């Protein structure tokens, strides 16, 4: 969609959310679509699909430090609409965000669901991917690899905890708290390594990550996968040293001047695929 | 989605657009989804699909007298994405509205496209469906049945004018101009009769329409179909007598106190299906 940006108001189009000044406020707008079988597992509870659809959009707002004002949801009707509505109700209640409207359609084929989240910035300038500067520290705001474990539990029916995959929890309060202090921020939706490389590229810097520090945030023995799997919706940020004294974040690296590679893990470019690409 | 309205901010949820006060401004938000084969004809040019996707959302803003601020578009990738992008570019340029962002996804099945349009109200209170009062006149702002003719031309390959079906033109300027004067307003998307009955129900009144007046706005010999076909995206409004002296609208009826029927055509309830229902 980038090629179509027709306005300077579309600052941050490279980001997961659009930023739009309006009167005395700054709007933050995001839209994500989920496709049956692509972003969901066969037979997954539609209540969980609805929760996740909303949660991933709220997570985009969290990464902007934005406060959600409302949602528009597009729903393709099926046999299990009451479960979808149930999940919508649960996530809207949990995050105190009103469903303002949307659309329902019928389709014979694969179903898809869309959500637009509308938020207001709590801090201007709104954090983007492009503000990381050499000398900043790199922070991660929670565990990775939990969605991977949840996905496996659901897929294999092991009875393990599926919640991180099925009902991710956007870090709205933490994003709000971090926004004034960070230089760049995004949520880890496609994998820590690929998302870190996106901050590096957008900021014109190199991110140097420390696998020992990351290992403390990942399931034992699954570090390599956990760094590439995504769907965890924790926050990845750059900012001044010492933020861990004030916020529940862990330092996982340092921002360097741009070298040959945008991303280094213990001094070398990470091997293989970095994460999920659309 | 109605059952889920969780906030009084969702005023006008029965409407095609949500109204959300924010600081000194009032946002108007709308989302519509189009499904391949449901809202499009097989083999239709994706550039026209993109145009229509945006235009129907802008038409919802027009009915609120809102000025468009930007769009978020969700696109399912296919073999013909360049044509879709071409149509997006054309409609964004035509209506000077920036594409702020959105999402692209892949799906093996039937494709669907979503658009969220964000606007700012130019007049508060924002016109809704529920303000029609006994004694008001009923107005129509343009021709009906043109999309019907365009659809037939495209389907049958007659070489006739397809533009009203393929590239509808939202009446943004007229909606803006009418907003301070009307008591209720909506766009004719599902058919004049069904849309008129929606204003009547939302307002708790009866709309009495005059088929002779409507006939002057419809293709000769196709009046009954034209009143039920929709897709024309002209504006239907109620308001004080005499608006036709100041605006390009035609009086087509009168608002009565609520009688036994919400809608009368020449004194009797219209026969058969009133229009397209989702």
UniProtKB/TrEMBL annotation, chains A, B:
Keywords: ATP-binding, Kinase, Magnesium, Metal-binding, Nucleotide-binding, Thiamine biosynthesis, Transferase
Residues that bind Mg(2+) 4: 16, 30, 60
SUPFAM superfamilies, alphabetized: PurM C-terminal domain-like, PurM N-terminal domain-like
Residues that bind Mg(2+) 5: 190
Domain (PurM-like N-terminal): residue spans on this chain: 15-120
Molecular function as annotated in GO: ATP binding; magnesium ion binding; thiamine-phosphate kinase activity
Catalytic activity: thiamine phosphate + ATP = thiamine diphosphate + ADP
Pathway(s) served: Cofactor biosynthesis; thiamine diphosphate biosynthesis; thiamine diphosphate from thiamine phosphate: step 1/1
Function: Catalyzes the ATP-dependent phosphorylation of thiamine-monophosphate (TMP) to form thiamine-pyrophosphate (TPP), the active form of vitamin B1.
Family annotation (HAMAP family): TMP_kinase
Protein name as annotated: Thiamine-monophosphate kinase
Organism per entry: Qipengyuania gaetbuli
Organism lineage string: Bacteria, Pseudomonadati, Pseudomonadota, Alphaproteobacteria, Sphingomonadales
Gene: thiL
